[in-house]
Recover the amino acids of this structure.
């Protein structure tokens, strides 16, 4: 999605956990989408199991208008219908296509022309499935983020090779043969964002908020995908879930999280990964971590710091992959508007500090941490806010 906005708006006090909302019949008007953006929607889900291209196009146009009106960034997610499931014996492997002809048409005729950010693949079973999808996308779709649903025993058995190939994973409660906590730990260690699907009813999760608490507290998921059973007052429902995420995040034991992540990280760490961990854990009084590199932001997000991660990109060359990664990953706030691609890194970092100060993330006298490349090597710089 192209971000045609005059000035970006940062949602003050937003949850670190990102939120996906499905734009359905009661939530597709410009006015309602604006309310959803204000309430905390980071990713708009387009459910292609139903609805025509013309119907989704109307919704997409409304979303672009709402983003322009509010200045709040939002990624676009195309959730494919996938193949029809065939009942089989337990544990039996079924050779289903990763993409049906309808899926290909939805991607090539609607998704790519609309410059979507994310595609959710509902029937990934092995790593090579991702290769076939990327071949189908071709050059025009090379920056689209691919999310793989891990919701069956075959996929769970091939999770290591899927994790290597996918950009992110989607997990649902109760999927057969899938240890959700184990999957999230694997993904966290590799720095792959995790989206946890949660069914809600009337603003309440169907299991008295246990699913949400598990995702945010126990699993420190990157993003929750809210699947409403009804569409009554969608903005109120989303606002409630967003507020609950913020309250849950206050209870996270970051020391315990850090110890768990340290054990899961591969060894030896590459230089940038070491500096990302250092920036995340060695400055307890810092108010934010600033970087201008998506790969660095990815490594910092993997460490699950307790403070925001500001990812600065230039207006020129603002790519869909940078947008989608920043809007999916826990704790990252994408910032754009720093100027052209030729702008100096130091100026981009200064721009981030000024935005953080303006938005109340930090104040004069506070410290922030900058992670950047200097003379070909990653370096960490603590900065005092003026």
């Amino acid at each position: 999605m192209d971000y045609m906005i005059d000035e970006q708006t940062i949602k003050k006090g937003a949850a670190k956990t990102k939120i996906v909302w499905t734009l359905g019949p009661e939530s597709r008007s410009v006015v309602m989408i604006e309310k959803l953006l204000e309430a905390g929607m980071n990713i708009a889900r387009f459910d292609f199991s139903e609805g025509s291209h013309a119907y989704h196009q109307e919704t997409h146009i409304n979303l672009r208008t709402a983003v322009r009106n509010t200045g709040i960034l939002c990624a676009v997610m195309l959730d494919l219908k996938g193949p029809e499931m065939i009942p089989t014996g337990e544990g039996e492997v079924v050779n289903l296509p990763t993409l049906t002809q309808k899926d290909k048409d939805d991607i090539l005729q609607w998704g790519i022309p609309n410059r979507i950010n994310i595609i959710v693949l509902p029937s990934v079973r092995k790593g090579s499935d991702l290769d076939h999808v990327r071949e189908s996308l071709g050059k025009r779709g090379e920056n689209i983020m691919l999310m793989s649903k891990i919701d069956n025993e075959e996929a769970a058995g091939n999770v290591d090779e899927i994790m290597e190939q996918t950009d992110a994973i989607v997990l649902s409660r109760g999927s057969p043969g899938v240890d959700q906590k184990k999957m999230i730990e694997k993904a966290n260690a590799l720095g792959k964002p995790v989206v946890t699907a949660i069914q809600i009813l009337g603003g309440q999760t169907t299991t008295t908020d246990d699913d949400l608490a598990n995702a945010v507290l126990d699993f420190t998921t990157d993003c929750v995908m809210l699947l409403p059973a009804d569409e009554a007052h969608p903005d109120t429902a989303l606002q409630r879930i967003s507020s609950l995420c913020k309250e849950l995040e206050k209870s996270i034991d970051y020391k315990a999280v850090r110890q768990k992540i340290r054990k899961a990280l591969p060894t030896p760490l590459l230089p940038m990964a070491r500096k990302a961990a250092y920036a995340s854990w060695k400055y307890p009084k810092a108010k934010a971590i600033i970087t201008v590199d998506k790969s660095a932001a990815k490594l910092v997000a993997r460490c699950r710091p307790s403070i925001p991660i500001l990812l600065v990109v230039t207006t020129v060359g603002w790519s869909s992959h940078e947008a989608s990664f920043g809007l999916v990953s826990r704790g990252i706030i994408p910032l754009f508007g720093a100027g052209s691609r030729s702008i100096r890194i130091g100026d981009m970092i200064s721009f981030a500090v000024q935005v953080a100060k303006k938005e109340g993330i930090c104040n004069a006298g506070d410290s922030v941490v900058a992670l950047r490349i200097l003379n070909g090597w990653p370096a960490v710089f603590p900065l005092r806010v003026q």
In short: The mean pLDDT is 88. The longest strand covers residues 194-201. The chain is about 40% helix and 20% strand.
